[in-house]
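Pilot study result, target chain (136 residues):
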Amino acid sequence: MMMNFDAAGREACVVRELRTNTPLQSLNLMNDVTYLEAARKMAERMMREGGKTPAERTAYGFELVTSRRPGEREAATLAASFHYHRDRFLSDRAAAQKYLAQGEAPRDEKLDQQEVAAYTAVASMLLNLDATLTKN
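Predicted structure:
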């Protein structure tokens, strides 16, 4: 994983690291258990602290990772992503359970499982943004 993110080999001092964005980085961020678990915990936080509506919660998640509020188009993309994933997980409870089973951190059992799965998918997308990874 560290090679995919251009980490220094630790054999010599590196003054300036390269900045790249490759498909392998996205594969790591979208599929590695560590990142899926982080997305799940972020989704739980979005639900607990982000407000009452999906728009408020997804905007809160966006602000957590980018340090700014989403623009109009960004908010629309977040809303569409949430609704797509919520509909998917409402129709396939087993898929939601499998998706949320990633990692060792305990789940917040008080929160609706299908809704957490939908917010987890949105959080995973947010954690994969270039603005999140590089903080321009």
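One observation from the pilot: The chain has a mean pLDDT of 86. A full batch analysis is planned for the follow-on phase.
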